[in-house]
Amino acid sequence: MELQFPSAAILLCLGRVMGAVVYSPEGVERVAEEVRPRGDLPTDSHSYHLVGISFFILGLGTLLPWNFFITAIPYFQGRLAGANSTAWTLGTNHTSPADTFNFNNWVTLLSQLPLLLFTLLNSFLYQCIPETVRILGSLLVILLLFALTAALVKVDMRPGPFFSITMASVWFINSFCAVLQGSLFGQLGTMPSTYSTLFLSGQGLAGIFAALAMLLSMASGVDAQTSALVYFITPCVGIFVSIMCYLSLPYMELARYYLAKKPSLAQGQELETKAELLQSGEPQTFLGRWRPRGS
């Protein structure tokens, strides 16, 4: 398994589509001039920096949970192999023939499939579920799933039920991560590009942070149970901080300004896009220009 580092161009474009923010820069500037008077944009530098820090932490919180989850893969393999949790370390590889559950294959399938399905589903969810509900709901569900995973570290369980619970957690974690990222990128599409850069930087730091945590765990020589417990509690703290940052955005003047004008922008951008498609997608124009050979 590899740590996830986001591709800026792909994620940003995909998030804007999933968040129903398809626009051209010229269209945004024109609609923005129509929906607000000049000089209405807040110029408080403190608000600007606080919003940037909030989106940086939100970017960190979106990928930090899953990166920590896959870093603890040896812990799951050891539990499924029936090994004593205190007899091995997280650096041990349990990919022996005794791995009758094909853990790595199932984790790969059940993590990538919901990412695809729920990213597509998010393009329909935005029409019936408010953005705040999608973002906060996803963060809360991921927090509960990681709290459950951390609690299972101290619970003795047979490999079969433990495997089923872990696979269900993998599915739901990635499902809500897809909704969360698509919704946040859709929101970032109406804000200055600086915040998108900070958000992506936070996601990149999540992968680095998980890798450093794995190296420190292996170097310290602590038992696997303690290391796994720290691995699953750390994302819970990160998600909780992300929730606090998102809840604080409406209290920041700059964020409140962009969030308030988003519905007007989205409506104007949608009308503009439909007009462009109607003008450029007429079949008669294409057929009128086509001529068979020899005519």
TrEMBL record:
Keyword Transcription regulation assigned: no
Lineage, highest ranks first: Eukaryota, Metazoa, Chordata, Craniata, Vertebrata
Keyword Glycosyltransferase: no
Location(s), subcellular: Membrane
Pfam families: Nucleoside_tran
Location (main, coarse): membrane
GO MF annotation: an example: nucleoside transmembrane transporter activity
Membrane spanning stretches: 48-70, 106-126, 132-153, 165-186, 198-216, 228-249
Name of this chain's protein: Solute carrier family 29 member 2
